[in-house]
Amino acid sequence: MPRNKRESFIYSVIMCFTMVLWMSMYNVTLHMGHLSLETIREGWIGFPFAFVYAFLFDWFIVSGPAKGIAFRYFVSPESSTLRKVITISCCMVVPMVFVMSLYGGLEACVKSGAWSQLLIIWLTNIPKNIIMALPFQLIVAGPLVRRVFRTAFPEGTVLQEPVM
């Protein structure tokens, strides 16, 4: 787990990249009805905007309240690391699914022009995305990103304040 703001920033970039890329491919595959090179191309083309949108929401809006809820209701600083990781991950994924499902609905409406369908697209995207995002975060992305992060940045190598 990140130990300071700089580590949190780097960790968030890596996690957002992983989750948004996977979920972009998943959603484009659902929309197109099959996985192909065209699906991958479409997912990759939409990825940069989705990544920026997700990162901004994650960093500035979702992260603080999600961690606050996790530590207020579900875990304490003395809880095991695994329990804290799972709890914070769940508290982050759920609101991010709502936010990113809205993004997907907006993207679909921009492409189709069917703005009257935005609410129904958003609401139908939420359960489709939660059943993929939560297990992927807990089983694949979380452990993978934590391992990559700590391999690239061993504990104590990312300082809070620059040394002068």
Q: Give the overall average pLDDT.
A: 93
Summarize the helix and strand pattern as letters.
HHHH
- Determine the structural class based on helices, strands and strand pairing: mainly alpha
- The helix count comes to 4
Number of structurally distinct domains: 1
Percentage of residues in strands: under 5%
* Coarse shape: globular
InterPro entries: DUF2798 (IPR021529)
Keywords: Membrane, Transmembrane, Transmembrane helix
Protein name: DUF2798 domain-containing protein
Transmembrane segments: 9-25, 45-64, 85-106, 126-145
List the helices and strands and how they pair.
Elements lengths: L4 H28 L4 H38 L6 H32 L5 H35 L12
General description of the model:
With 164 residues, the chain is mainly alpha-helical. The chain has one domain (5-152). Helices cover 81% and strands 0% of the residues. It is built from four helices and no strands. The mean pLDDT is 93.
What are the salient characteristics of this protein?
single chain; about 160 residues; mainly alpha; 4 helices; DUF2798
Summarize the structure.
InterPro entries: DUF2798 (IPR021529). The chain has helices at 5-32, 37-74, 81-112, 118-152.
